Amino acid sequence: MENVTEERVSLYKEIEPLTDKPNGPVLVRNRETKEFFVKKYYPLFLKENLLTLQELDHTHLPKIQEVLVEDGKLFLYEEFIHGKTLTQIIQRSEMIEIETLLKMTLELLDALIALHSKGIIHRDVKPGNIMLTNDGLLKLIDFDAVRTFDGGKETDTVQLGTIGFASPEQFGFAESDRRSDLYSVGVVMNVCATKKYPKEQLSTNKFLRPLILKATKLDPNDRYQSALEMKWEVEEQWKKLKFNYQSEEKETKKASQEDRIREILEKNAANKEQQQNISQKVVKTYPSSILRKYVPGFRTDIVWKKVIAVIYYVFIGLGLPLDIMRNGSSNGRSGLVVEDLLYFVLPVFLFTNFMDFHSKLPLLKSKKRIVRIFGYILLGLFWLALCSLLRGEQRVP
Length: 397
What we know:
- It is an enzyme of class 2 (transferase).
- InterPro entries: Kinase-like_dom_sf, Prot_kinase_dom, Ser/Thr_kinase_AS.
- Keywords: ATP-binding, Coiled coil, Kinase, Membrane, Nucleotide-binding, Transferase, Transmembrane, Transmembrane helix.
- The chain folds into three domains: 78 residues, Phosphorylase Kinase, domain 1 (2-Layer Sandwich), CATH 3.30.200; 160 residues, Transferase(Phosphotransferase), domain 1, CATH 1.10.510; 93 residues.
- 52% of the residues lie in helices and 12% in strands.
- The protein has ten helices and ten strands.
- Strand 2 and strand 3 form a beta hairpin.
- Helix 4 runs antiparallel to helix 7.
- The longest helix has 68 residues.
- The protein is elongated.
């Protein structure tokens, strides 16, 4: 039997401790399956309880892979949970929404229903022992304080639990039972809602307050008598919360209908005024839109570009006709027209992106600046080639 245990233990390679505490949890990896697990040390007297827990396969409880005794010490290997404790979430958030809190409470109670069905009491339900996985599932972890309910004792043999969350009977007043876990659930709910214990500040939320009050009664007989009973009450409060949300939505819709009617009337009045002035606006904006769309230099609102464009167009409008008229022959004039258009007019259309033709050229429409620069260089070479070709033709006798 010892050889079998040693063989099983050797299957797990220790990776790193998860806390600084002596005998704290250690991250391990199965050498065969490559799965990660958490190795935890437990007192030897908890062996039977842990073996019972191993039989449970529940969504809101960690899956126990193995329970092994090594060198007289009890070790539990359970699934490695990726997520955060409720303590971490409470510390980092301003407030947990009531709907989310009720949903978490239902999942926590489902975990306790599974434990209690095996006669096991957790006895240390607190935010630090509640994890929310990266997938949004709640897991009740850590079984250091678990015990089976005896029913014939006046107090617990071993008094365990966390002060503030543990029920009064866990400190020697009576034997703890499943109602002790429900007391802790009530405290957890209040801490999530107010970040304080019920004795310091009780939640005033109308959906939480009655649940917390009943769960944290000093006398166990005045509390919920089972996790299932408390689950029913939480579900009822959740239904009331949903109904309240729906009622508020109806009121909001009803109140907004008048605002919508008012908006429609105001829009209709504005539309009439717009229709009266629409022709004037078209007349005013039409010449401007033509300039912005077709005439280089006026397609932006940059003043210096407009000034240069005006000077250039005056030069073209006056200079070119005078230059052409100075040439006496008709053949000379036609050649001069072509030459002037090529030298002075064509560059404007080529380099100012007339009619947005650059968006149709592969290099010039590129988002990379260096590619566009290369495209402009090729465009310039094309223009220079045309100029050279024209001069060559003029030199031929």
